[in-house]
Design a protein that fits this description.
The chain is mostly helical and 174 residues long. It has five helices and no strands. The protein has helices spanning 2-33, 39-75, 83-109, 113-138, 140-163. The radius of gyration is 19 Å and the shape is flat. The termini are far apart.
Length: 174
């Protein structure tokens, strides 16, 4: 019990470190691209989204594969029956959230925080309804699907909104 608490605390600190590092990178990215709605800036965004997607796909894919064996070793015999499956579903949401965060940064770097706020306001009632229905039907796995679906939907909406800021070919500077 004491070892599990120590491991959980360590995992929480590592996760918090990754979140802080990602937030710092996003802030730097926003500052660097502020007022730069150029082809080069958009090309750079697409390149970084591609790199991030590949890295996160590898991380979440490996995690999804090892969760069924890792969770029982870590938690022990008290592990609820569908915990590994819920964790695997959450890996999909983590991947979507990571990709969406780049488009979120793009929009904020160009002074369009209003767009992300509107997207989140649109998503909220849809997410709450899906969360309620899926929890009623599938329990914790339903909650995982609701969150993961929201993260993928969010990434798609942010991507679509960021395309509106892409400069027209005639505005390209030689």
């Amino acid at each position: 019990s004491r070892n599990r608490a120590a491991v959980a605390g360590g995992v929480q600190r590592v996760n918090h470190g990754f979140v802080l590092a990602a937030a710092q990178l996003r802030r730097a990215y926003e500052f660097e691209l502020r007022d730069q709605c150029t082809f080069e800036a958009h090309r750079l965004l697409n390149r970084w989204v591609g790199r991030l997607a590949l890295i996160m796909l590898a991380i979440t894919g490996v995690l999804a594969l090892v969760l069924p064996g890792l969770l029982p070793l870590w938690i022990g015999p008290t592990l609820p029956e569908h915990s590994a499956l819920a964790g695997q579903v959450l890996c999909i949401g983590v991947l979507g959230n990571a990709i969406g965060s780049m488009y979120f940064a793009w929009l904020h770097a160009h002074g369009r925080a209003d767009v992300t706020a509107k997207i989140h306001l649109i998503e909220l009632p849809i997410f709450l309804l899906a969360l309620y229905c899926l929890i009623q039907q599938f329990g914790v796995i339903g909650a995982a699907w609701a969150w993961s679906g929201r993260m993928v939907f969010d990434a798609l909406l942010l991507w679509s909104s960021s395309k509106a800021l892409k400069p027209a070919p005639s505005s390209r500077v030689a």
